[in-house]
Amino acid sequence: MSDAVDLTPHLRIARPSRDLGAAERFWHDGLGFQVLYRQAADGTPAHRHHLLMLGRPDASWHLELVQDPLATVEPRPTPEDLLVLYLGTPVPDSLVNRLEEHGGRRVRAHNPYWDSWGVTVQDPDGYRLVLSTRNWSNG
Predict the structure, then answer these.
(1) Molecular function terms in GO for this entry (predicted)?
(2) What pairs with residue 66 in β-bridges?
(3) What is the pTM of this model?
(4) N or C: at which end does the chain have fewer Cβ atoms within 10 angstroms?
């Protein structure tokens, strides 16, 4: 197809955050994502938002958390707004404990499938992270 879209570009998952410090503690200190980029708002149109980008430098995706100090956008996650990490191994209790110590809260999944195949933890903004015991190929 000549009009086919190349679906291999870098993927950014952007979400509003009410507290970037709490979010960083959860995603960086709790889960172990690296801070890839940070920007403080300076009032100019190009830098109106506080940004925090997290992930792995070698991955083709990252999580961007945004906070607009002039026009706060309240996060409105639903129980089906999931970020799923396919670990392919049992979820270590130490990881779940660390996420809880850094602002997460273990919750039951809205879809029982995820309770069967992993652990769901809610981040400080209310978004859900699923740590799946499955591999991506059988997810």
Answers:
(1) dioxygenase activity
(2) 16, 51
(3) 0.89
(4) N
